[in-house]
Design a protein that fits this description.
This protein is an alpha/beta fold. It has helices at 3-16, 24-42, 75-82, 130-138, 154-165, 200-209, 225-233, 253-260, 276-287, 315-322; strands spanning 63-69, 100-106, 109-115, 142-148, 168-170, 177-181, 187-191, 215-219, 237-239, 241-246, 265-267, 289-294, 307-310, 330-336, 345-347, 357-363.
Length: 364
């Protein structure tokens, strides 16, 4: 019995099992087994088979965005519109066969946009080069899921399921669970909140399934068994995702309104170039980037060349970005902008910078 058959057997078993108090342990065990088999499926085969051609693209720019979607939903058209790169677009499926990178220049930042080949159902098992597509998507900062507005919700749920099964969690945060395997002493289980979905017995059963008999587990929030399994496996990627509904010129206004009101969703039309500017604004918000400008002593700030950093970056991060030896020679910095109480304010290395602040660094 191959891994794929085992996975489908367990999925059928989960589907036909009623969810209640009596079956929760059984379901927890099944979910643990399922996660284990899926992890085995993603590992490269040990046999010396011919090397497949991956399409990992070198990371460039300040952030990386992956375009994921079914064939013929307008990913290549979107790339050609947003960047100066031309990606071949045609009316047949699988026009794009490898990963095509482009660069969006927005608010002084260079955002790398990856046009990936279309995903089909069963991509997580490796169908239609799905595994390479998903491997590249794991390295992105934000995923843009391109959906055909005329196909409704079917595409979205299928794609979410594919990404979920390879350990990409969309628009979720990391479960607040402390987990540490130990040399001995059995399983010590504690929680700071009342647990409604997990119990000590279920946690021990799941740990035994992974052959872990000594560990420290502390739940700081009410998590489900699935989230606890994610913490044990530890290779999950939590990333923001923007659902982009293309081809809105082919549906009614009521339907456009309904799609636009969904959380994390944007409606666009690549054919008629509708709403693309709003999509860029949303993308900037999801990437959480900040522009910081530098200033030399006695001169005006240089607003042409910004330093692009993540939200929450400190003065130390700015120093490292300018030169790696700057932080060791740092005396103090003067900052103008919204992060200070008054301008200019004299700050140290730990001061948190905000969008469009101006900084002048004074060395020892």
């Amino acid at each position: 019995m191959g891994i794929l058959e085992k996975i489908s057997e367990i999925e059928k078993e989960i589907a036909r099992t009623q969810k209640n108090k009596a079956t929760e342990y059984h379901l927890g065990l099944l979910k643990a087994k399922l996660a284990k088999y899926r992890a085995q499926l993603l590992e490269p085969s040990k046999s010396a088979s011919s090397k497949g051609e991956g399409f990992d693209v070198m990371k460039s720019g300040d952030a990386r965005v992956a375009l994921i979607g079914f064939p013929s939903v307008g990913k290549s058209t979107f790339l050609s519109l947003m960047t100066s790169t031309a990606s071949e677009a045609a009316s047949y499926e699988f026009t794009t066969l490898t990963c095509i990178p482009g660069v969006i220049e927005y608010k002084g930042a260079n955002i790398q946009l990856l046009d990936l080949p279309g995903i089909i159902e069963g991509a997580a098992q490796g169908k239609g080069r799905g595994r390479q597509v998903i491997a590249v998507a794991r390295t992105a900062d934000v995923v843009i899921m391109m959906l055909d507005a005329t196909k409704g919700e079917v595409q979205r749920s299928l794609l979410e399921k594919e990404l979920e099964s390879v350990g990409i969690r969309l628009n979720k945060h990391k479960p607040n669970i402390y987990f540490k395997p130990r040399k001995g002493g059995g399983v010590s289980f504690n929680s700071t909140v009342t647990l409604t979905q997990c119990s000590e017995k279920l946690v021990q059963l799941i740990l035994h399934e992974y052959k872990i008999f000594n560990a420290e587990v502390l739940f700081r929030e009410d998590c489900s068994p699935d989230e606890f399994i994610d913490v044990i496996v530890g290779n999950r990627v939590y990333m923001p995702c923007l659902y982009v509904y293309n081809k809105i010129d082919q549906i009614s206004m009521e339907e456009v309104d309904r799609l636009a009101r969904k959380p994390n969703s944007v409606v666009i039309s690549c054919g008629m170039k509708l709403n693309l500017d709003y999509l860029l604004e949303m993308l900037w918000e999801y990437l959480a980037l900040t522009c910081i400008y530098t200033k030399k002593r006695g001169q005006r700030p240089d607003f042409t060349d910004a330093i692009i950093l993540r939200k929450g970056a400190s003065v130390e991060h700015v120093c490292h970005r300018i030169h790696r030896s700057l932080a060791s020679q740092f005396k103090y910095a003067l900052v103008w902008g919204t992060s200070t109480k008054y301008s200019p304010q004299r700050v140290g290395l730990t001061h948190t910078m905000e969008h469009e602040d101006v900084i002048q660094i004074v060395k020892k």
